[in-house]
Amino acid sequence: MSKAPWFERSPDLVDEIRKALSTRYRTLHLYIDGGEAEIRGSIPVVHADRELDRYQVRIVFPSDYPKSVPIVFEIGGRIPHLPDYHVIPAGNRETSKVGSCCLFVDEDRWAAWPAGSAFENFLEDPVRNFFLSQTHFRETGRWPEGWEPRGHGEQGIFEAYRDHLGAVDDATVLRYMWTISHREIKGHWPCPCGSGNKIKQCSHRDEIRNLQTKIPSELVRDRFEADTKLRERAAKAMFGETVE
Amino acid sequence: MTTKEYLQSVLKSQTIDDDSEEMKALDKHQKKVTQLIEKALPKSSPTIELGGSGAKGTRNKESYDLDIICYFPHEDSEPGDSLKELYASVKGALEAEYLVESKRSSLRLKGKSGTDTMRDFHIDVVPGRYVDDTETDSYLHQQGGEKKWLKTNLRTHIRHVKNSGFVDAIRLIKLWTARNAVNVKTFVLELAVIKLLDDMKGRSLEAQLVHVFESFKDDIKPLSVEDPANSNNDLKPILDEARLHLQVVASSSLETIKSHGWEAVFGKVEDKDAPPKAPAVISAAGSVSNPTRPWSPEM
Fold first, then answer.
1. 0.90 exceeded by pTM
2. CA distance, residue B258 to nearest chain A CA (Å)
3. Three-class SS state of A115
């Protein structure tokens, strides 16, 4: 028997969304129809009581919301569908996401919109930031200083890891990825820091634990499943062979 | 400021001057569209001119669209014998420089490459063929639906809207649909507003808008509209696509007006002397407390 959609299982989440929209986002509207839920409307970019810009949007709730992040589409045709504008272009293998806005790399979710956060925070932080950065680029020709977009593709993923690990090389990032991709990490495994110590004896064991709380093992496994070459490189980095 | 003054200030702020950047951009595209069609169909002599909101006086800055009609003489077979072929010929001509999205009877122009990829230029080209030498009524191809063509008259449409006495209400309802991303064909929306306001001539703009919202909220299901140029044209499917959204948004807006006033519906009107935006945007970015960094999975 198929599971009921999230909005039937969790009416409190629906109430929370409706409340956020009716109090702070009155030009956004929730539609629940035919087993699917989405928001349509326009979202303002406001600062110091001045509306700086406004974007027409469609926000689609995945079936496993709030575990998965809602998918945001700019539907006013103002933002080119190009990687440099952080919109998924045509031809992407995930066809349902073509045209959607890449608000943040998944490895940044713990800071951008942590699990358990209110939907209002989703609109206030990553969604607002995304559109503010687009307006910033249009007005100044530059992305906001201090929170420039991540590099494209793998570069952005590795940057997210380096935010936790410091200025480490690719091989170290790959070893940490390999390690935290496991639900259970064994103390006798070599520490991914590269010291040669076992995890249980290494000063970096807390770092591994800390990283696990921020980047779920499932996320890393999904990355490896989508990119088997990445998984091979991580395994090679872990077990001493040369990393390309 | 009274509600009347506020609504008039909204209308004024939404007026696009003829020498504005928006109009210059539209003018550039209109010239390009003409060139592309003339190049692809050199033996034809279509009428290529503005239709829609510009002619009706219902254009808004926040949601402007340019309708360009491209009507071929009734004996001109260069674009094709059938309306479907004619539609495809015009589409093909425009695809030389645009990404062209097929709509029910029109062709939406978007950016094809570079930093314009998928950018919406807000231009609809409407290919058609005049019914006869009088060049008044025209046939348009229809995508989808049972009937593959319709007969209509642009000048009748323009007159119907322009002379309705409800241009201000129409402009504000159009603005309202844009701000709430209600996807409804403008022409059908205009007809709906005119029909709903039939008994409201002489009433205040505020009363007219409330009446439209209440009608959308309570009576959207039976609402029907008729093409003034041809009562045989079935506009029901077009209205059907938007009924739920119109109802939801109208209901929400009525609540908003009650609890927060009209400014919460149409927004604050920015002073023409407001300071430039760029410094305010930079300041806004600098004060973000939880910055997030957009990404792209693609290279």
1. yes
2. 13
3. coil
